[in-house]
């Protein structure tokens, strides 16, 4: 599979700038855009124009995703402009799931073809190996962005004295390569963002770590927000690898333990666990999550024979 050199992460200010740029689209093509499109082969020029119009169609709820499909196709023709524009969508999570790694991968590819804006994105980056999006490597549809309207509404209603947790989650989740929206969904259900939360089963802090889990992931003080989130996210990352990216099984195990999930070969038939999974999945409806196969062997559920 094709791999390229790219950044391990971009500064928050860079992606804030991308968000502003992505939201400043105009109804008509600019002179610069027309000039850029005219330098492309006819088939790519047509794809780019259609994609840009879809991005700017405020009446089309799937316009960004449909644009991503066209950018993927144009990227397979080798269009650096399409790769850059697709990278912008991944950078800010419009139409496709937000991914700094995939955005960087696309910017790096476009920069190799002399794309100026992409080169500017990569001026201050460290390099590692990451795949391009599957839709650029073969004729498959890009994954759609997760509809997290319920989570977004919950976060928007958070009081100021709890909002500082958002940045902490974003930072730690990025270290562990776990979607911060999944982490936030779990925190919202587990503790309602209360750092001092404690259950009758001795689960503690934001991510409600029981003593055994805290010890397992080297958490000395479960009421310390940073330690708690690091331990909870490390456990969640392990569960995602153990259950091969199955979000429902990982979330069920976070609540009931992996031994219980293995014993029932799925979500246990406990009202508490099933309601818990339902609440988290309502805020994070994505079924699959990327996982690192090197972290652990898979659960016996996935072993044959």
Number of domains: 2
Uncertain spans, ≥5 residues at pLDDT below 50? 1-13, 19-27
Note the main sheet.
Answer: 2 strands, antiparallel
Q: How many beta-strand elements?
A: 2
**Radius of gyration computed on alpha carbons:** 21 Å
Summarize the helix and strand pattern as letters.
EHHHHHHHEHHHHHHHHH
Termini Cα gap: 30 Å
Counting helices, strands and paired strands, the structural category is mainly alpha
Please write the CATH class name of the largest domain. Answer: Mainly Alpha
| CATH topology heading of the largest domain | Lysozyme
Percent of residues in helices comes to: 55-70%
The strand order across the widest sheet is 1-2
- Structural shape: elongated
Descriptive notes:
This protein is mostly helical and 305 residues long. It has two domains: 3-137, no CATH class; 149-302, Lysozyme (Orthogonal Bundle). Helices cover 57% and strands 3% of the residues. It is built from 16 helices and two strands. A two-stranded antiparallel sheet has the order 1-2. Helix 14 (247-256) crosses helix 15 (258-264). Mean pLDDT is 88; it is low at 1-13 and 19-27.
Write a compact overview of the structure shown:
With 305 residues, this protein is mostly helical.
Topology:
Blueprint: E1 3-7, H1 12-22, H2 31-38, H3 42-55, H4 63-76, H5 80-92, H6 100-112, H7 116-121, E2 127-131, H8 134-137, H9 149-156, H10 160-176, H11 180-190, H12 211-216, H13 225-242, H14 247-256, H15 258-264, H16 271-283
Antiparallel strand pairs: 1-2
Helix pairs in contact: 1-5, 3-4, 4-5, 5-6, 10-13, 11-16, 13-14, 14-15, 14-16
């Amino acid at each position: 599979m094709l791999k390229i050199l790219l950044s391990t992460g971009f500064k928050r200010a860079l992606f804030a700038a991308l968000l502003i740029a992505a939201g400043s689209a105009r109804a008509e093509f600019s002179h610069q855009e027309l000039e850029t499109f005219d330098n492309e082969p006819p088939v790519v020029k047509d794809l780019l124009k259609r994609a840009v119009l879809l991005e700017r169609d405020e009446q089309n709820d799937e316009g960004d995703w449909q644009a991503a499909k066209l950018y993927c196709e144009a990227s397979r023709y080798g269009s650096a402009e399409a790769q850059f524009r697709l990278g912008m969508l991944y950078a800010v999570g419009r139409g496709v799931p937000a991914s700094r790694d995939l955005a960087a991968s696309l910017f790096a590819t476009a920069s190799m073809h002399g794309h100026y804006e992409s080169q500017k994105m990569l001026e201050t980056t460290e390099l590692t190996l990451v795949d391009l999006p599957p839709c650029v490597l073969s004729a498959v549809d890009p994954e759609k962005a997760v509809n997290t309207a319920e989570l977004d509404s919950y976060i928007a209603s958070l009081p100021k004295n709890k909002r500082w947790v958002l940045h902490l989650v974003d930072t730690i989740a990025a270290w562990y390569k776990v979607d911060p929206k999944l982490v936030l969904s779990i925190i919202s259900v587990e503790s309602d963002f209360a750092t001092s939360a404690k259950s009758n089963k001795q689960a503690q802090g934001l991510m409600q770590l029981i003593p055994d889990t805290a010890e397992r992931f080297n958490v000395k003080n479960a009421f310390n927000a940073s330690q708690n989130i690091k331990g909870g996210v490390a456990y969640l990352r392990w569960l995602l690898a153990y259950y091969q990216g199955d979000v429902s099984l990982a979330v069920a195990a976070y609540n009931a333990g992996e031994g219980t999930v293995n014993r029932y070969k799925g979500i246990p038939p406990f009202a508490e666990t099933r309601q818990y999974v339902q609440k988290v999945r309502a805020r994070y409806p994505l079924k699959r999550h990327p996982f690192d196969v090197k972290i652990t062997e898979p659960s016996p559920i996935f072993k044959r024979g």
